Amino acid sequence: MSHKEINPGSVNLRKLEFSPKVNPLVQPQEITLRKSTVRAGRSDNLVNQQTGEVEAISTIYKVVEKDDAEFVKVFAAGVAASYDLTKTAQRVFTAVLKVYEETPMRGGYVDFIDLYWFDGGLCGQAIDMSEKTFQRGLKELFAKSFLAPRLHNSYWINPSLFFKGDRVRFIREYVRKAKEKDSGQQDMLNDKTDQDDING
Question: Is 52 left (phi over 0), alpha (psi -120 to 50) or beta?
């Protein structure tokens, strides 16, 4: 599993490391956010990464049908929320997702897309943002492993975050915080240690 540190400010769009033959985003990705960890991969990858075991988890499962337009909106919003995307990055992701949806499949799938900025928009289509704003959101998508540079204006897509299927599952796991020791108990332990030091 590939683990990424998040720092969109460190992405320099003029000095990208291209990977013309291999998509570095195929392997499951793990990203540490402020208060959570996000894993992307097939369902068989979403297990305890240290032990490889499936842990006992209480699960509530709900299936909701959506039409095409609603499905894309729910998908984009769910991914954006899972990865704590800024509003700018969310707008860029939605625009890139539209380009991805319109890209014809090659060999049964789409593993990369071409993104050109011309005529004041993405691939010539107005997306209600400036090129500078688009690039700021694009940097965040690089930093969070949504896209990886392939060639100039050509980008590998993360197959866990872009797909042409008709079913998506968002899993949010809640973990109970470890309780801190009772402060009164801790004070008693500290007093005992101090007493032992005096007597010792």
Answer: left
* 122 class by beta-carbon count within 10 Å (0-12 exposed, 13-18 middle, 19+ buried): buried
Q: In the chain, how many domains are there?
A: 1
Tens of pLDDT, residue by residue over 44-81, are 445 566 666 665 555 555 667 888 878 878 888 888 88
Q: How far is 61 from 57, CA to CA, in rounded Å?
A: 12
DSSP codes joined into one string, 53-80: PPPP-----------HHHHHHHHHHHHH
pLDDT band of residue 187 (cuts 50, 70, 90) is: low
Domain of residue 87 covers 2-173
- Enumerate the β-bridge partners of residue 7: none
Instruction: Answer whether residue 193 is part of any domain.
Output: no
pLDDT band at 133 (very low <50, low <70, confident <90, very high): very high
Is the pLDDT at 132 greater than 90? The verdict is: yes
User: How crowded is residue 197: how many other Cβ atoms within 10 Å of its Cβ?
Assistant: 8
Note the pTM of the prediction, 2 decimals.
Answer: 0.62
Give a yes or no: residue 134 inside a domain.
yes
Measured at the CA of 85, the angle between CA 41 and CA 37, to 5 degrees, comes to 45
